[in-house]
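User: Could you walk me through two proteins back to back? I'd like the raw sequence and the structure tokens for each, with a short line separating them so I can tell where one ends and the next begins.

Assistant: Of course. Protein one, sequence then structure:
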Amino acid sequence: YFEPKEKPGLARLVAGMLERGTLRRGKLELAGELEGAGAEIDFSSDPFAVQIMGRSLAEDFPLLLGTLAEMLREPSFPADELEKLKQQTVAAIKEQQADTGRRAYERLSQTIFD
């Protein structure tokens, strides 16, 4: 909601890029380590917030928290992954534009929250 008007979608792109690699490890290394422990981290966003969801067994919580800290402190934003995410975002926007319920919700939100 508070992202710069001249850069719409910035929050969504940042949230999407956080799990695509850090300065120390690529996305496959991060995903492999989490998957090996049966853990997962997911980032999502909406017009008002970025949500972070993590799930693991209690004994794997230090691994989960350490990986999340690395993702938040040392994101690498690789150019090839950014380009992929931009294409995925365009496709998602086109899909959302075809969803009449979502369009009605967006219009209601714009009317209420000028």
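----
Protein two, same layout:
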Amino acid sequence: MTLEDFWAYDDGTDTCYELENGELIAMSPESDLNQRIASFLFAYFLQLGISSQHLRPKLEVIVLGARATIRIPDLTVLTDEGLTALAGATQATVTMDMPPLRLVVEVVSPGKKNVDRDYRYKRSQYQARGIEHYWIVDPNAQKVTIFHLVEGLYEETVFRGEDAIASPFLTEVSVETPPTAATFLSAGDHA
């Protein structure tokens, strides 16, 4: 399937798909907790002073693959240049000729395929795409994994429980008191 085929595809259902190497991949329905985590992070970033214009849930991101590949992260943060590039676009898609995103957040759904997709495939694709910050919030494994791009490769740090999230992204937006992994994993109910 090409990008154009993907954008034109409609099977008459509400199923959300990603495109992986030209093949449709049905995304499993999000659990209530996963949706609450993504919503909590959206609200948290707003409280940090990141404008709602820069925040995008479920934004299509074209990444490198053997064939056409589109990922749809749970939440993204655009750079100022990315915001400008999307202004007036007819398709809410970050194309290969646009600046990379500032941050991508994936909330892991249960199942080996979902874990492999978020930890392995998306990690390498987001890294190759030059996305500076990639966060994986994994309520199943009860951990938050923070990736930061350093000289073209992701450096990884894992946080659990009451570990304070130390992230270059949070430093950039001047967070004085970083949240704990438990705060993210519980969608703020733990705060």
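The first helix runs from residue 3 to 8.

Let me know if you want the two compared in more detail.
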